[in-house]
Design a protein that fits this description.
With 264 residues, this protein is of the alpha/beta class. 35% of the residues lie in helices and 23% in strands.
Length: 264
């Protein structure tokens, strides 16, 4: 479903501020894979998601989604392939519009739009059922402005929006990092449910090693812009944080340096 072939990206090339963010990055995701991504600061995790999303073009290499080479495809044209939830609960939604209107926008992503009634009765019934599945009481607040929701409620709505069209690839970019632990656990449980229900191929970047181990069928660790560990199956099920730190040290020759990840 996703192939990253020898992707390179250097920011500010030829200057004293040159920074190689992706260094011969290679990664393949099979249909239905739920891959968690962990790594230290500057490992290239979010840069990788931006390469997939088309925020910028790689210096070299290819990005292929479901057999389609999208390397030179602009960001707006990739929208039909992708769903993305950001770390900031304020991103990914229109704060001054209602919940139902935001869901309607998501339903029309990548499609031609004309002059028609904004949200149909059929859509409202569909959205009510979807919101009820979140068990947050939002089905009774469909016309409430999204900007009035709590961070957890907003991330839950954004998850629905990102998965509404069952994208080829769902990108979760540290989508629980700004939430308190209890709310984060609720949003992660919703993520698991939505991914399993729609059988979505998913990449979830997280700074929390416990979450990286507990969720998904596969875990990759990045360091200096490339994948240095790729763990799945029984090995992942038996994995502990201590095992992961030891493996990182053995492969990289360094100790894992990310206070946020270690403390969480």
């Amino acid at each position: 479903m996703l192939e990253l072939q020898h992707v390179y990206k250097t920011f500010n090339p030829g200057t004293v501020n040159a920074k190689t963010a992706l260094d011969d990055l290679c990664l393949t995701l099979n249909d239905g894979d739920f891959v968690t991504v962990i790594g230290g600061n500057g490992a290239g995790k979010s840069t990788m998601l931006n390469a997939i999303s088309g925020v910028w073009k790689p210096d070299s290499g290819k990005v292929i989604i479901d057999g389609v080479d999208v390397t030179n495809m602009p960001e707006y044209k990739r929208a039909k392939f992708l769903g993305r939830v950001f770390q900031d609960p304020m991103m990914g939604t229109a704060a001054s519009m209602g919940i139902d209107e935001n869901l309607a926008l998501a339903a029309r992503r990548g499609k031609r739009r004309g002059l028609a009634w904004g949200v149909t009765k059929k859509e409202k019934a569909q959205y009510r059922d979807l919101l009820a599945s979140l068990d947050l009481g939002l089905e009774d607040r469909m016309t409430s402005k999204v900007g009035l929701l709590s961070g957890g409620q907003r991330q839950a709505v954004t998850l629905l929006m990102a998965s509404l069209q069952e994208p080829k690839l769902l990108l979760l970019d540290e989508h629980t990092a700004a939430l308190d632990p209890k709310t984060a656990a609720k949003v992660l449980a919703l993520s698991d449910e939505i991914v399993a229900r729609n059988r979505l191929t998913t990449l979830m970047v997280t700074h929390n090693m416990h979450d990286a181990i507990a969720h998904g069928n596969r875990l990759i660790m990045m360091h200096n812009g490339r994948v240095i560990l790729d763990i799945s199956g029984e090995e992942k099920k038996k994995l502990t944080v201590e095992d992961l730190l030891e493996k990182f040290t053995a492969v990289s020759g360094q100790e894992f340096a990310n206070d946020r990840a270690l403390l969480s």
